[in-house]
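G., the chain you wanted modeled:
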Amino acid sequence: MRALWAVVVLCVFSPWVWAVSPYLYGDRVSGGDLSAVMGAVEGKLTRAGFQVVGRYAPQGIPGHGVVVATDRELLRAIAQLGGAAIVGAGIRVGVKSDGTVSYMNPDYWYRAYFRKQFRLAERAVAGVQQRLAQALGRGRPFGGDVAAKDLPEYQYMFGMEGFESDKNLLMEHLSFEDAVRTIQDNLARGVARTAKVYEVILPEKKLAVFGVAMNDPKEGEGWWVNVIGTENIAALPYEIFVVNNRANHLFARYRIALGWPAVGMGTFMRIVEAPGIIRDTLRAVAGDTGH
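Predicted structure as tokens:
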């Protein structure tokens, strides 16, 4: 009887105690030219029913790239959740020129992004997880471990920013359409040495997200990613997301920590300037002419 009770308790409470990793390795593909490797991954995603929306080869991180896709059922769930859930519209797959493939673990990232609403989207998330594993392979998880129960309110350490930080706001516009148009125009013009990686827009819900390439050789992503670890390449690119008339990002002491949870504080201190630099860069993209 005690053994049966222990099993019942484990089944009831295990979703709250298990640890989840941010990334999974996929099956290797043929190595060589990075563009060809990304093309092979894009083909696998497309055949599995995903919609490829962008690719990214970050400046200063040679031999590494990211393919970004999305999924109809996931977007339907995000539309129902609304608000900042739109930041999760991009499904990120990391590649290396040697043929290594890794991808974001949906169970990790969407517990963090959807938070208390995760259960409302759990079926769509599980579908994405299953199809990614079928398309790319399900290998060893890596990148650190965070308890599932901690992801909805994740902080790297007490006192640091979380998902709903006041520092997320970049700029308010007169309307949703004005915010989207400004970001599109600025990315097309390369403001602050940026470029568009992808965009997903749900106009009927007044929601949008843009993946942003930060290409400045001194202030782009290359310098800080090389410090904290290029293996987690599927954390990129950084996002600007629009909810109604407000352009936002996830402040980097949250967003970087979420993508690199195993990195020690001493290493994070080496990139202490990154959150401010990222915010200033994205403010310029959002239309803040003071930056």
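The first helix runs from residue 2 to 17.

Shout if anything looks off.
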